[in-house]
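Q: Can I see a sequence and its folded structure?
A: Here is a first one.
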Amino acid sequence: MNFFKGRTLLIATKHEKEKVLAPMFEQALGVTCVTLPDFDTDKLGTFSGEVERIGDPLETARRKCFLALENTDFDLVLASEGSFGPHPTIFFSYADDELLLLFDKKNGFEIISRFLTTETNFNAQAIDSKKQLIDFAKAVKFPSHGLIMKKSKSDFSRIEKGINTWDKLNEAYSYFNENYNSVYVETDMRALYNPSRMEFISKVGEKLVSKILSVCPQCEMPGFGITAVQEGLPCNNCNTPTRSTLSYEYVCEHCDFSRIEKFPNGKTSEEPMFCDVCNP
């Protein structure tokens, strides 16, 4: 059963995410990808803070889908939402949490994939000197990755976005320094100004495509993905359960068919160096 071939997939984006998403979805699903020319996702929240995001990333991605489908004849839509901040388990490390949602209005289902990485340039700093600004810019991969400048972290009265040349950076610094004697700079996390983020959107796209193409053995609906990970792979020295993955659980959201896949990483035991007993 092919749910997608020959259909049009609307990519709900303002920031050129279709550049990495459209080719893979067209090739894998047989769809034709389009965007809306004046679609404004900023009304749902901005990374620079002047518009607060209401709801979590999944709720926001859904709102993007519904907003994109308003007053159109499309019935298949793809939306992305990213979140940046401290990593949930790795202390003193920032993380990029990318979510991608495919909503099929015609057939009444959605399929979701996420990708969490610490490989992000996400950062911000109050600037006291030109040297400090240059050091910050170089550390966050400028000018290949854009910057945002404003008076202070929570002052949105004047914001310069999409700064991606040294000339623009110098001009913005001079303006804020001369007019406010205060400069706050942060990474521009919009996809079109952040190649690192665009790469991770591509990766979560690959994960979503793989999940879409995985169909339930019982009802043949797409999106038969991993719903739980079970730890407990035994140590090959003392046989104590470790924190390494023992099995994956798959559950179909449509018919509740479930399947357990043991030893998904191709090994039946773990090395003692990863055992809390052998290597406390």
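Q: Show me another, different protein.
A: A second, unrelated one:
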Amino acid sequence: MSANEKYPVQSITQRLLTRVQPRSCTFEIRDSRLIGFILRVYPSGRMTYVCQYARGKRITIARSQDLTPEEARDRAKVFMGQYRKGEDPAAARKKAENIILQDFITRHYKPWVITHRKSGKETVRRLESCFVGLLSKRIVEISPRLIEKWRTGRLKCGIKPATVNRDITTLKAALSKAVEWGFLQTKSLASVKPTKVDDYAKTRYLDRDEEQRLRAALITREGNLRKERLSANCWRMERRYELLPELSSEGFADHLCPMILLSMNTGIRRCELFNLDWSDVNFENRLFRVGGLTAKNGKTRYIPLNEEAMDVLQRWKHQRQETSGLVFPSRDGKSFNNVKKAWSALLNAANIKDFRWHDIRHHFASRLVMAGVDLNTVRELLGHSDIKMTLRYAHLAPEHKAAAVACLIESS
């Protein structure tokens, strides 16, 4: 393009954004695909999308780093449509920017996130509980300085940096939608960086002794539940009450033992386990399916069943005498929400500290890596979309690293 060409016309694309060079003065590029859609280039190299919706009437859409050309072009179409309907987009923008965070979440973001994200309800809960002091602020007022002040307060209260990072990521995602939907011009929190955390320090798995204690505690718990059921039926028989079903020694006393054993042998996530259906289990091919609607990353994966996992599911199915529905239904027939009480009591009985249900996945992954399974296979089994996550969850145990460096002495 020539230097004296004030308003060159080109198709505004991502490729153009990477090739255009700033000049000594501001210039504009008009889109060849949509009349009124403009890319404004400043001497500093900063670029913004502009919509000229009428003669002499313009509105800035967003910065080039906040929206793709396609997204910005769509926003321009919306502004032009508003003007054709008799509404001034600039006035509507000013009104939109005055919306407070609580109203934006309730009226706009909540319906969208609940519909499009499996964790939508938890996202809304996190926003409304973690950012109470910001809910009455206009979204245009939520600045990096304000968030840094909020972060400092949270950290001083003892909230873990990783938790604070997740909270900020949740808010940034909501305000990114505000940009996409035209409530804001820029992603004002783009410069807010996460607090550095040591991910590897958090990875927890069971050593051999702990696993043996956990399994022994499961066996003891099963026996105690059977004794309690027998005692309860003796009491009911004396009073001529209807007896409760007997707990056979061949089956499981309740859901907890098969849930834990299946998790230890497959690495299935808790939410995936709670929503596992008998239609997902294929005994003939010795595997089960985690559907995309249930999986965290939205992608279906298949997990093979080893001998213990096969035995657990076959015994549980024979005991339940069910061929359809949830594999582990709660008392009301719906999926479980949590098993915190039973899980906590089991850990206390096994004298295991600092071990969450999710850590069973860490244990599963670590055992595979220590057995020599390659990381990509572990990634596929865990359902990770990025190998970096597998490195975080499946790092080797210290004793195996020590054995590795010991080889240097043995070979000398």
